[in-house]
Amino acid sequence: MTEKAKISSIQLFMIFIGFLHGSSVILSPAASAKNDAWLAIIFGGLGGALLICMYVAIALLNPSKTLVQILQSRFGTFIGNAVAILYIWYFIHLASLVLRNFGEFIVTVTFPETPIVVTIGIFAALVLYAVNSGIEVMSRLGELFVPFMLFSTVIVMSLSLITTQDFTAFLPLLENGIKPVIDAAFGLMSFPYGETVVFLMVFPHLNSKGKLKGVIALSTGTYMIMSLFIFFRCIAVMGADLFYRVTFSPHLIALLIPEVNMESLIDVNLLIGGGIKISICIYAAAKALSQVFGISDYRKMTTAITVFCVVLSIWVYENILEMFDWAQKVWPFYSIPFQVFIPLILLVLSLKSRKKQLSSDS
């Protein structure tokens, strides 16, 4: 049974930005470039935009088909299902990593005496409720909460300028050479831009396919601009050295604002992005699993997948330092087949199929 749910352009715009925002503020790979991180944000954003263009092109060449259906169509049923199962693992793994990111954030800055499994379990239960409500409800929640996330980012940014120490902290240019910038840009392409491959399970629900390119271009550009503003705010307030060393820079920025307690606003802001990202990943995994095995309702899969994500999120890291190390050194390379190689093959095969179809029609 095909899900008939539809989402509007503005809803896709909101959940796409929320997904990109996700945990990228907590685990920013661009921070490794220190005061040159703004260059990494630009280069990584341009590279990430190319990846997103590829995903959009695949979706437009295969209208109304999900990633699983595209794989089955281009690779054949057997190989297509095998590759789809790999993607299901990738989506589940990504959801569990983001759960752990936010679990570590909450127990580190807000509830240090609370066991991380309790924090992750409560967050996962809320996400499960949203996923079971369907993609339309998830999109409406994004439409409701993401504007608050964007607005609060601007508010904190404006108030934090009161404590600004040095507007030239991002200089000198390329003080440590170009290599840290390239490394950081590569990490940024994978995280978060390349992770939007998961939206190939969501794009078919857009009620106006002709607006897909414009919506995704606008949301990607908005996120890039927001990332630059966040970087310049953080480095102007904290300086390059502290910006590189601090674990959760948005939280510290909120604490530095005099006479105003903005800590809870930052927490809610990050939880909105994380909630959207985890919800989309679990929804995509459940939907893909139901299509591979011919199950009529993806909701039959969501509870088991969410419980597995919680268990995996606890098991996957020993501590917060390992979490940061994995995100920066392992995840970009681990993601290459899912974000680059397989989508590139799908794009080539889809273009060949379209060319063959046009020549047969003429």
TrEMBL record:
Keyword Coiled coil: no
Subcellular location(s) per record: Membrane
GO cellular component: membrane
One Pfam family it belongs to: Spore_permease
Main location: membrane
Transmembrane stretches, start-end: 12-31, 37-63, 75-95, 115-132, 144-164, 184-203, 215-244, 264-286, 298-317, 329-349
InterPro entries cross-referenced by the UniProt entry: Spore_GerAB
Alphabetical keyword list: Germination, Membrane, Transmembrane, Transmembrane helix, Transport
GO biological process: spore germination
PANTHER family reported in the protein's UniProt record: SPORE GERMINATION PROTEIN A2
Family listed: Belongs to the amino acid-polyamine-organocation (APC) superfamily. Spore germination protein (SGP) (TC 2.A.3.9) family.
Name under which the protein is recorded: Spore germination protein YndE
Organism (species): Koleobacter methoxysyntrophicus
